Amino acid sequence: MRAPVDFREYQEGDLGGVLASCDQEGWSSYVDDRDRARKVFTSPGVVSVVAIASGDVIGFAYFQTDRAIQAHLSLLVVGRSFRRAGVARGIVSYVFPLLGATRVDLITDTAEDFYRSLYHKEESGFRLYPPGIATRDA
Predict the structure, then answer these.
(1) Within a domain: residue 63?
(2) What is the rounded distance in angstroms from the CA atom of residue 105 to the CA atom of residue 115?
């Protein structure tokens, strides 16, 4: 039987667990610089939340929001052994009231089926980069 999952806003002590999840996914842009990751997850206009089970971070997401209309899901990750257990759906449900926004946009190349299972409107999108920047890493 799985431990119950709790959702709450990100706290400083969660950084190690969050970065471990990012490392498991190969997201080096977060793992390579702890101070930069900390700044990203706590910047003004950012709402970061964690899913906790048995005292451990098992899921994480951060959003950018104007707290009025628009929010953007920048990152959502759930530990592999907790996937398909409602954790990601729980994170999205938990965070919506914290965002103060009426919609959330996102880009994914790995979780289309999950996002299609949520109430949504699907549209085309782009991720822009400055010239000369590699586009493989999240």
Answers:
(1) yes
(2) 11
